[in-house]
Amino acid sequence: MTLFNDMSQLLPITDPTWIFLVVLVIILFAPLLSSRIRLPHIVGMILAGVLVGEHGLNILSRDSSFELFGKVGLYYIMFLASLEMDMEGLKKNRKRGLIFGLITFLIPLSLGYAAGHWLLHLRWEASLLFSCIIASHTLIAYPIVGRYGLSRHDCVTIAIAGTMIALLLALFTLAGISASAEGDVSVGFWFIFILKCAAYGFFIFFFYPRFTRYFFKRYSDNVTQFTFVLVLLVLSAALSELAGLEGLFGAFLAGLVLNRYIPRVSPLMNRIEFVGNALFIPYFLISVGMLVNMKSLFGHSEAFFVVLVMVVTATVTKWLGAWITQLVLHMKAAERRMLFGLSNAHAAGALAMIMVGTQLEVAPGTYLIGDDIINGVVLVILVSCIISSLMTDRAAREIALAETSTAANTANTNEKVMVALYNPESVEALIDTAIMMRNPKLQKEMIALQVCLDNDRVEQQLKLGRQNLDRAAMVAAAADSQLSTYNRVGVNVVGSIIHSMKEFEASELLIGLHHKRRMGDSYLGTIGSELLARTNRQIIIVNYLMPVNVVHRIIVAVPEKAELEAGFYRWVERLSRMGEQLGCRIDFHAHSATLPLLKSYIEMHHPSTRTSYAALDEWSDLLIVTQYLSYDHLFVLVSARHGSISWQPAFDNLPAQLVRYFSNNSLMIIYPEQFGQAHELSFAQPLPMVK
Fold first, then answer.
1. Cα pseudo-dihedral 459, 462, 463, 465, rounded to 10
2. Rounded to an integer, what distance in angstroms lies between the CA atom of residue 292 and that of residue 276?
3. What tens digit of pLDDT does each residue of 405-427 get?
4. For site-directed labelling of 230, which of 331, 524, 537, 578 has its Cα 20 to 30 A away?
5. Where do the H-state alpha helices sit in 149-275?
6. pLDDT of 356-411, one tens digit each?
7. At residue 598, does pLDDT exceed 90?
8. Can you tell me the distance from the alpha carbon of 276 to that of 442, in angstroms, rounded to the nearest whole number?
9. Rounded to an integer, what is the distance from CA 442 to the centroid of its chain?
10. Is 370 or 598 the better-scoring residue by pLDDT?
11. What are the residue ranges spanned by the domains of the chain?
12. In sequence order, what are the residues at sequence separation of 6 or more whose Cβ sits closer than 8 angstroms to the Cβ of residue 28?
């Protein structure tokens, strides 16, 4: 007993090192134990917070570190939700998102007000505040969606859009409650409030894209870019609070603006997700659990009744919102469960709203919200987070299994990209392009190849090759992509590449553009010309003048009869994936007979890719495309080998045209896969490893 008393005097832990150690132990073991009993990791984190908090074993107190990291964790959840959102899917589902947002706000608002007024006997202001709390919600279960790879699914996009609409309406209502309690509901108050919100929105949507483009073009260091993104995230949250809105709304807007500058499979995105999921989000979940006081339930029956009414009202009204949305939008049962799971959780946003009520004095010494309601909201947070996590996990599993089954029947498994390296300056751009073009669901590794000539400089070449391959491996690892590297010595560069493609069964080759060193050099170089002549696999040649992630638009020129080539749909698939990852528009300029096939394929397999189509019936009109090109565009030229179906004599003039009219643009040249033997080429050759 004495030992127990001595131990209790040491608690809660106050030493920062031991506090951080306990938190890390929870972050490590809570998911492992949760998996054993088949609970979502989020639930395990919250319950661990309940256990170690001051209302549990009192191991840790909810000090300023939990408030700081917890708040950033909440921002991170909202930021990731908008950062990973399919923007084209958002445009397509904006009406459905608006419908869900209004339904999931109005039903809890009306029924919550009735429950607060008639069952809990609250003042009308307190009843309205309670209804606002349950009408808004937090995407606390969003990390579950990310783990199942459903962040761009239509029902997830609808849920995220509805979340922000419900939150915005709740914040406006909260502002009105505060003004009413303070006796300042005037036209001037609303005018200033709306003016501040408009100024904040203008700053975010006008300046943030310009800041980002400038910074990413000028600074390519990974740590610097990550820190820059965090600065924009926290700045947006801080400015949102200054405007009278919640910081989590600002975090969401920051992700919305940065969405198109951070590709979903890029190294930067992987770092952002890693830091959030490994530290900030778990800190937030633990801090939520530490708020819960289970003892308050057993104090007296009245407190238990208040908590029961609040929990049941919050859960039932959100379920009704999802059910009615399913009926209105004709959705599946799994999608309804996903809507309910993502919209049911109430977290720190609800606590922030209830704190407003504790500060509003409606009479001398009497505040709008009492202790019973505060305890009830905290219990609502706990119960809703658990229900939300369980329901989201179940729905995500059902949807993912259905999509996996469909994908297994339609996926082309003959896909393995090989990247030939030479110039150190182009390594990162080549690997980034390969990552964006690959199909991550197939889990096929990429191949990075460096060929060194067996001559008196072979040792120097091998050293350079190892440096290039190490850099490629780092870029791929940062994006969580599989990459195998090979440093090969040979007497002939082209022969070594061709043999390697056969050995590793590569479906296509990605190389950099040749830099002319002598007047007699061809545009693509000797190695590129020989590669085209000796393989019928798809060859892609790239030359970027800026970082890949700041490409604003992709302009594609397609020759006549390109649809008759064997590799037609392969390059269309690659460009569609790249457009999805970059979040930019793809403008196709092709023959009128080719356009319908392009459009039908993309609408069927990549409906979220933004596209436009224009006729280019005569290849001699290629220069017309220059009027659509800008410095931040990528010009893609679909070429052809000499003697192939889509080859035409006009291709002989392409090298001169590219040098004269397109030298100031980022360039990609695609030679599609074809049947038969390639003949002597004019301009149908890719560039070698000279960039």
1. 160
2. 23
3. 554 444 455 788 999 998 888 89
4. 578
5. 154-181, 187-218, 222-242, 247-258, 267-275
6. 666 666 666 566 676 677 778 888 888 888 899 999 999 999 988 877 655 444 44
7. yes
8. 26
9. 20
10. 598
11. 2-403, 417-671
12. none
CB 542 within 8 A of CB 667: yes
What pLDDT is stored for residue 5 in this prediction? 55
CB count in 10 Å sphere of residue 685: 28
Which residue has tokens 């990731």? Answer: 80
Q: How many residues does the chain have?
A: 691
What pLDDT does 581 receive? 87
Question: What is the C-alpha separation between 369 and 129, in angstroms, rounded?
Answer: 9
Residue 328 has pLDDT above 70, yes or no: yes
Amino acid at 376: G
Which residues are bridge partners to 637 per DSSP? 557, 669
Write down the H helix ranges in 366-524. Answer: 371-410, 427-437, 458-478, 493-503
Residues 506-517 as b or e (16 or more Cβ within 10 Å = b)? bbbbbbbbbeee
Q: 286: part of which helix (H) or strand (E)?
A: helix 281-290
461-491 in b/e burial notation, b at 16+ Cβ within 10 A? beebbeebbebbebbbebbebebebbbbeee
Which tokens go with 117? 């007024």
Give the best-scoring range by mean pLDDT among 157-166, 227-236, 369-378, 456-465.
227-236
By the 8 A CB rule, do 435 and 476 touch?
Answer: yes
Contacts of 398 (CB under 8 A, 6+ apart): 334, 337
pLDDT tens profile 20-64: 999 999 999 998 898 888 778 888 888 898 899 888 888 988 888
Res. 163: pLDDT tops 70: yes
Say if residue 351's pLDDT is above 80.
Answer: no
Query: How would you classify residue 330: left for phi > 0, otherwise alpha for psi between -120 and 50, otherwise beta?
Result: left
Rg value, the chain, Cα: 29
Rounded distance between C-alpha atoms, residue 246 and residue 262, angstroms: 24
Confidence of residue 297 (pLDDT cuts 50, 70, 90): low
- Alpha helices in 588-690, H assignment, sequence order: 595-605, 654-661
Helix (H) or strand (E) run with residue 221 in it: none
List b or e across 388-398, with b for residues whose CB sees 16 or more CB atoms inside 10 angstroms: bbbbbbbbbeb
Task: Please give the angle made by the CA atoms of 217, 219 and 223, to the nearest 5 degrees.
Answer: 135
DSSP 3-state assignment of 140? coil
pLDDT at 618: 82
Specify the DSSP element, H or E, that contains 668.
Answer: strand 666-671
**Whole-number Å distance between alpha carbons of 688 and 260:** 31
Overall CATH class of domain 2-403: mainly alpha
To 5 degrees, how large is the angle CA 409–CA 414–CA 420?
150
Q: Decide if domain 417-671 falls under CATH 1.25.10.10.
A: no
Report the candidate in 228, 234, 200 with the shortest Cα–Cα distance to residue 73.
Answer: 234
Q: Cα separations (Å) of 627 from 542, 611, 622, 635, 662?
A: 21, 18, 10, 12, 11
| Partners of residue 557 on adjacent β-strands | 589, 637
Say if residue 12 is preceded by a cis peptide, omega within 30 of 0. yes
